[in-house]
Amino acid sequence: MSVLMTFVIAIKALRRNAMRTALTALGMIIGVAAVIVMVAIGNGARASIETNIRSAGSNIVNVNAGSGGFGPVRMGAGAVTTLRPEDAEAIRKEVPGIKYLSPGVNLRTQIISDVSNWNTQVQGAGRELLAIRAWALEQGSFFSEQEERSAAKVAVLGTVVRDQLFGAGADPTGATIRIKNQPFRVIGVLTKKGQAAMGQDQDDVIIIPFTTAQKKLLGIQHLQNMTISAEDGMPLERVQSAITNLLRMRHSVMGDQDDFMVRTQDEMMSMLTSTTDTMTYLLAGIAAVSLLVGGIGIMNIMLVSVTERTREIGLRLALGARDIDVLMQFLVEAIVLSLAGGAIGIAIGFGAAFGVGRAMGWATLVTSNAVMLSFGFAAAIGVFFGFYPARKAARLDPIEALRFE
After folding, report:
1. Alpha-carbon dihedral of residues 4, 6, 8, 9, nearest 10 degrees?
2. 135: helix, strand or coil
3. Is residue 302 within 8 Å of residue 389, measured between CB atoms?
4. What is the Cα–Cα distance from 259 to 248, expressed in whole angstroms?
5. Which of 24, 32, 80, 238 is most buried, judging by how many CB atoms fall within 10 Å of its CB?
């Protein structure tokens, strides 16, 4: 019997009991749709994290002050004060492949304007920070090299801070704000950046020269961090290694107890996405149980179909049909049933993923790999769970089958 004829007979047999066929396919539909939605949510979360990390800039290497302690007591990250502006200058001059570098110190305090006040993060940074983070200005300008060198009291506001202190969309350039009771002149407003990968609002910030933060606000001489951008095409691992070796030499570090931490953008992305990947696999695994249940339903209905059509099978065998013809007939029916449910499930999965994204405000991403995997899994289930009923039908004795009532 030709494959086309087998396929036509399978379609006719399934249409003979349309309601039963639809209910049986429902298990596959739900299973495939659930897998696609769960994977779409996981992929969307991963893509969102990667986008947020890239929004911080390209080819980024972060250097942070390390932990310190006395005896058995260990302090947290950033506790040591050995990271100095001189280290930043040494990195700029001696490490190949450095494009931009911004020393940094941070604090959080209450900011006061003439009309309002707001508690926010004050970030002391270098003049190259905007180039590192590919951040544009909505209004005004950024501080200059001279203002950085002279520790000028100038500030650039994020949009959230601008809106809270001066009103939504206002132009505060030239206005005066007070940080720790010291007057600062607003010289610019940054464009909206949005939420960072770790959840903090990047627009809820004030940026001032790091020298100003050191001398006028904190009274310190050390740095808390450095943000570095490598040249395009420069391997971040090489830059990371060179920075580490230079700082270990400058700080006279012995053994493996560094008093600083050097992290690349790739490491950050790997740490953040590993949890997302685990949750995606977990959710997809749970959803795949629905496919297994759907496969059991297909096996059950095919066994019922074999029993109902025993006389038909006996007649086919008596008229010369081979065992392989009968086996293929029922196996194709199971595969068609499974694939039809898979195709409908994919369509519903697309719609459900889009609906979940719109309703919950989540990022969802349906990939071709997820679709092909779901469809392939549906076909495999049709073959696996359809083979036993098909083999049972093919092994029927023609005489006994014709006698079956």
Report:
1. 160
2. coil
3. yes
4. 8
5. 32
